[in-house]
């Protein structure tokens, strides 16, 4: 299955190195091998988790005559940035390099010398509704909500396989990726934190509340949440500040990269929408260079719109989520009068589709929204 980032990645490899980051098991290695045109035994594919590949790389034994070299999970090496810089500078006239990793490669910069100007960075997301089907159906949406967007459990379409996959993936994120990248002694606390966050999806995340549940300091819990963000387990979005409203300034909302972990159906739908919007933002940013951001809008009286998408710090549109085809949120009318947001969408899982021109608002199925607006 070809993924959405493949064409721009292939194009960029003609000019610079390409880094692909993203959650464990989201399909980074598959994308890389598809571009390479071979399997895991291809001589140009190196995985840092394999001892033999590690030995060859440290000895400088790159295969000759290969136009593309793949370095998988090499960010787990302490001096990886200097190491990759050396490989690139020595071989860039005849070889392209594709680096993949299950962590934020723009964050884990251990080892000193910067690679600035030598690479383009892509973030690979789980399957979205539009990537799955250019004209998505209600059934497509239902399956994504149930099994999530990670290729293996989604394609299996089995609740048993999904449960087993979930247990194994979270264990590997905490006990393998985290331990290899961070100096953390309280691994059991991060295990518990990962579970606690599942019940806080689509809510303002209170570090103080988590601190009490974990019997830890505020600083420690904040650091642990940041670690889980860097490992693509969860993400937070900040409030959007508009001039004519008394908006929240500090509190952030939490979402998971795997929305299928959300036990509450409403929160799960909102998380799926958040993930699709974040994927849109990251793709625009990674391919076009614009500064994109996903925020939410909430004032001090708790009036709220779930999402605002910004381009270069200017709002493009806002999105409100309703699991069913319900009446228009009164908060959309309030904020349409007091902000400069060009248009508002209320998305739902039903069939209703209509506009309220005086409120700059359209109510429509989420399946139609991704087909007409996001397209990624």
Question: What does this 3D model show about the protein?
Answer:
- This protein has two domains: 6-123, P-loop containing nucleotide triphosphate hydrolases (Rossmann fold, 3-Layer(aba) Sandwich), CATH 3.40.50.300; 129-374, no CATH class.
- The mean pLDDT is 92.
- It contains 14 helices and 13 strands.
- A six-stranded mixed beta sheet has the order 8-9-10-11-13-12, sandwiched between helices. It has a five-stranded parallel beta sheet with strand order 2-3-4-1-5, with helices on both faces. A two-stranded antiparallel ribbon has the order 6-7.
- It is of the alpha/beta class and 376 residues long.
- Helix 8 crosses helix 9 and helix 10 (207-214) crosses helix 11.
What is the approximate shape? globular
Secondary-structure element sequence? HEHEHEHEEHHHHHHHEEHEEEHEEEH
Trace the largest sheet across and list its strands: 8-9-10-11-13-12
Report the C-alpha radius of gyration, rounded.
21 Å
Indicate the structural class: alpha/beta
Overall average residue pLDDT: 92
Number of domain modules: 2
Strand content: 15-25%
Q: Name the poorly predicted regions.
A: none
Distance between the termini: 15 Å
With helices defined by DSSP (H or I, 4 residues minimum), what is the helix count? Answer: 14
Largest sheet: 6 strands, mixed
State the helical fraction: 40-55%
Number of strands: 13
Keywords:
14 helices; 5-stranded parallel sheet; alpha/beta; 6-stranded mixed sheet; Rossmann fold; 376 residues
């Amino acid at each position: 299955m070809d993924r959405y980032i493949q064409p721009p990645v292939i194009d960029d490899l003609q000019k610079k190195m390409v880094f692909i980051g993203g959650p464990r098991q989201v399909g980074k290695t598959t994308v890389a091998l598809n571009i390479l045109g071979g399997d895991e035994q291809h001589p140009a594919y190196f995985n840092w988790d394999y001892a033999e590949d590690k030995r060859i790389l440290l000895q400088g034994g790159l295969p000759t005559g290969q136009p593309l070299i793949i370095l998988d999970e090499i960010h787990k090496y302490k001096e990886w940035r200097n190491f990759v810089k050396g490989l690139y500078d020595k071989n860039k006239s005849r070889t392209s390099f594709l680096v993949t990793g299950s962590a934020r490669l723009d964050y884990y910069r251990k080892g000193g010398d910067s690679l600035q100007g030598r690479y383009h960075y892509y973030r690979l997301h789980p399957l979205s509704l539009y990537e799955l089907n250019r004209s998505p159906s209600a059934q497509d949406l239902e399956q994504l909500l149930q099994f999530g967007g990670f290729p293996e459990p989604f394609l299996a379409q089995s609740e048993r396989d999904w449960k087993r996959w979930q247990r194994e993936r979270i264990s590997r994120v905490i006990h393998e990726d985290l331990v290899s990248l961070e100096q953390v002694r309280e691994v059991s606390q991060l295990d518990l934190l990962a579970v606690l966050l599942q019940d806080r999806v689509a809510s303002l995340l209170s570090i103080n509340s988590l601190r009490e549940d974990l019997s830890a300091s505020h600083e420690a819990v904040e650091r642990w949440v940041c670690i889980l963000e860097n490992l693509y387990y969860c993400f937070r979005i900040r409030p959007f500040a508009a001039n004519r409203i008394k908006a929240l300034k500090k509190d952030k909302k939490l979402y998971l990269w795997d929305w299928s972990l959300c036990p509450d159906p409403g929160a799960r739908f909102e998380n799926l929408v958040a993930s699709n919007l974040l994927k849109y933002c990251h793709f625009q940013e990674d391919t076009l260079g614009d500064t994109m951001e996903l925020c939410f809008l909430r004032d001090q009286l708790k009036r709220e719109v779930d999402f605002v998408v910004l381009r270069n710090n200017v709002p493009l549109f806002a999105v409100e989520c309703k699991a069913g085809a319900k009446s228009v949120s009164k908060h959309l009318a309030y904020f349409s009068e007091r902000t400069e947001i060009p248009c508002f969408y209320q998305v739902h899982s039903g069939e209703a589709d209509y506009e309220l021109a005086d409120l700059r608002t359209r109510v429509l199925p989420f399946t139609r929204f991704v087909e007409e607006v996001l397209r990624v």
